[in-house]
Structures are given as structure tokens and as C-alpha cells.
Design goal:
By secondary structure, this protein is α+β, with helices and mostly antiparallel strands. It contains one helix and six strands; from the N terminus they run E-E-E-E-E-E-H. Strands 1-2 form a two-stranded antiparallel ribbon. The N and C termini lie far apart (77 Å).
């Protein structure tokens, strides 16, 4: 069994995992990293980079803002209905 960070397409070859890929222990081929993930040469697993964290933060912030806008208009509509009575 060969170590993580390397892949072995044959028993005679032992190749370091290229940048943009990761290689778990026993890999016969490198696995491509997902978008917004950092995988330097010799990676054993995917590592969230700053871009991935920033994307997740922006997504959560957008959801929060959309919910607040929804609540505002829902309450405004309820208030208008109450004034009609």
C-alpha cells in the first residue's frame, strides 16, 4: 500500500499527486478537487480555501437578507389588513 499524497497507476510507479488533485492512501489515480477548494501538489485531501469560505458566507448572508425582506413585507401586509377592520 502506498502513502497518501501519491498515486500508483501500476505497482512500479509512485507519482506525487499534481496540483488541483488529491490522492488518498492507496489511490491508483488522482481525484480532481471541487471548485473553490485548494489542493496543492501532494495533497491528501481537499482543503477549503478562502474563496470557498467567502462564497459560503455570501450565500448565508443573501439568505438572511432575503428572509428579512420577506418578513418586512409580510408584516406590512398584515398591518394594512388590520387597519381595514
Amino acid at each position: 500500500m502506498w502513502q497518501a499524497g501519491y498515486y500508483c497507476p501500476t505497482l512500479a510507479q509512485h507519482i506525487i499527486c499534481p496540483e488541483g488533485y488529491y490522492c488518498r492512501e492507496g489511490s491508483v489515480a488522482p481525484t480532481e478537487c471541487e471548485p473553490l477548494v485548494v489542493c496543492p501538489e501532494g495533497s491528501q485531501s481537499e482543503t477549503k480555501g478562502f474563496a470557498g469560505l467567502l462564497f459560503n458566507f455570501c450565500l448565508a448572508l443573501t439568505g438572511y437578507i432575503a428572509f428579512q425582506v420577506y418578513k418586512h413585507f409580510r408584516n406590512k401586509k398584515r398591518k394594512q389588513r388590520a387597519e381595514k377592520w
